[in-house]
Here is the input.
Amino acid sequence: MEGLSQFAGAIAQIALSGQIVHVAWATLLGIVVGMIPGLTATLGVALVATLTFTMPAQSAILILVCVYIGAIYGGSRSAILLNIPGTPANAATALDGHPLAVSGRAGEAMAVATTGSFLGTMAGMVGLAMIAPVLAEFALEFTSFEFFWLAIFGITLCGQLTALDDPLKGWIAGFFGLFIAMVGQESIHAYSRFTYGYRDLEGGFGLLPVLVGAFGCAEVISVMRQPAGEVVRANAQSVLRGVGNGVRSVRTWLRSGLIGTFMGVVPGVGEDMGSWVSYAAARRAAREQGQYGRGSVEGLLAAETGNSAAVPGALVPVLTLAIPGSAPAAVLLAAMVIHGLRPGPLIMITQPDFFFSIVAMVFWASVAIFVLGIALTRPLLMILQVRREWLLGVIFALCAVGAFAVAGRVFDVYVMVAFGILGFLMREAGFPVAPLILGVVLGPILDANFRRSLSLSQGDPMDFVSRPISAILAGLVLVVVIVGLAPVRRALARLFRRGQEKANA
Amino acid sequence: MSVRRVDAIAGLVVTVFGAAALTASWRMPRFAERNIDPLTAPGITPGLLSAIILVLGIALMLRGLRGGGEDRNPGIANWDRASALRTGFTIGAIVVYGIGLFGQVPFVPATAGFIFVFTFIAEWMRTDRTASLARTALGAAVLSGVATIAIWGVFTKLFLVTLPG
Here is the structure.
């Protein structure tokens, strides 16, 4: 009851303090960033994070949450109209959204996506409000052993899920990210590691320059590498019918909301998997499976509900464990730390007001995507008519200024460019970039807790698995690694195929 | 270039990196003279991580050499001339601006010049371009001027960030 009144108070506070203006412009900016192919939610949040350093913490985090939620929703527009997902999280949206648009139902498809995103974010918000306090209380039991395993688990799982076909490359990217975080002065003895006398490296690689480089700069190069896409010509009729169709499919959005929230909570997995797993579950449960991929309203609704529900879900580990659930959540975590907020297991004890204000921010952002998404269906179409050649130069200039603005160091711009080229080469060679970023975030947590655990246990490896929670986490790491091994994956695929053949027979 | 060859080369790079990082971690001080617990030595965690990277790199290299792995072609294996030109130009432009100009030349001329050159050449490389070069140049000049002033104004006046120059 106390939580509910704190939540209501936080909602009223945002509405009455004038911050609702931030909600409107930041969500609209997020939608615009998300709908431009090649500009992801991570890039949007990272760029806007550099703009909000001088703002009060509450306003800055509100703006970033709105950009994040707006961008994940905005990506559905280009997925539906161009068959090009605006962000990777909207790839499943294109499967049914684009066929609907091609058949002359673009307006309805956009309305279904808007409704799905709204309902998904609301479902995720309920999940955030219910799961985070429980998880935070549970996490109070965590010692350095558990945090060590949690970091390893996050990296192995993220590596596995972001490179389903080739987990080996996902793990390499993740452990490389952890290693990158080792550069600079370490926290226990203040020894400078891998700096080779270069003073700019003493503080290590900043998260934001690395992130803006690996996502923003790499995307500029990747988008230019691809042939030019078509410029959209579409109508926007039947919007209200789409809203009705979306709301009526209660089972689909409830199921997708639950799945999306859960996928968001798992460290490093995020919106992409929330969308795909929700889509797959909806397809399996559907009576007319043949319609999926050819313009199914339920398929589109499942994909959009799933990715939007994952956003509040991804905030759960950010707030309770200080571990991001997705790449944009990693930027949000960095921004919280920069603003002096301390997410972690103690959040419900030390800053319960802050927690409920985050839930209220999610509420207002979801209301904003619904209102803006429906009201601006036609004007937003114009943004898709801007050609990439006129945007990318400006975006790279923003990446450079954003990387510089964090600490006023030109060195950070060099870091951004270097990680941009590295991120591009990694993508080209089939290595996912998200585990690398998660590794950079988790590196300091892993380092401090691993050495503390070794010292406490006097080097006895059994102490790492003798506590119940650490034993469970170690077991989960083992399961993820075993499932990721090629022979095991092949055997599982064979079993799955046989099961399906039997079911069909 | 086949996917296997890409994997073998990537595996070799990762293996060499892992071996070099492991050696560097091993050589880090253990502070025995300060009576510090050797289990908290600075090289412990990077040593563990580089050992894991080394093992994963060897696994990827061996898989590539043996012809295992997925059959999908990674992007790096598929290049046509136009893609290579656009990518080379983009990397060249961002390196010149990000490393050569940013911080060395005052912000406004460096950024305006970069946006103009990038936009004009990227548009000029389009095979389906319909506007004349003069019109493209005019558009790129207006865009570079407006965008540079907007970025400069927002960061220096609104967010009080001192930009170079």
Summary: Residues 106-139 of chain A form the longest helix (34 residues).
